[in-house]
Write a structure and sequence with these properties.
By secondary structure, this protein is low in regular secondary structure. The chain has one domain (1-40). The chain has strands at 9-10, 17-18. It has a two-stranded antiparallel ribbon. It starts with 8 loop residues before the first strand and ends in a 34-residue tail after the last strand. The model has no long low-confidence stretch (mean pLDDT 83). The structure holds zinc ion.
Length: 52
């Protein structure tokens, strides 16, 4: 029995997962075409809603 390790990428923007063909890191997400797919959203400013 062998184990296969599949390395894939995960887009932080659209939650798309894919497996790259080459060894190079993709520049954009193939789905949403975002160049920031590997960068998490900044949570510098937290927004909250006022509930009343
Ligand atoms: Zn994406």
């Amino acid at each position: 029995m062998g184990k296969i390790k599949i390395e894939g990428y995960f887009c932080e923007r659209c939650n798309h997962k894919w497996i790259p063909r080459g060894n190079e890191e993709p520049r954009v997400c193939p789905k949403c075409k975002s160049p920031y797919w590997n960068r998490p959203k900044k949570n510098k400013i937290k927004k909250f809603e006022k509930k009343k």
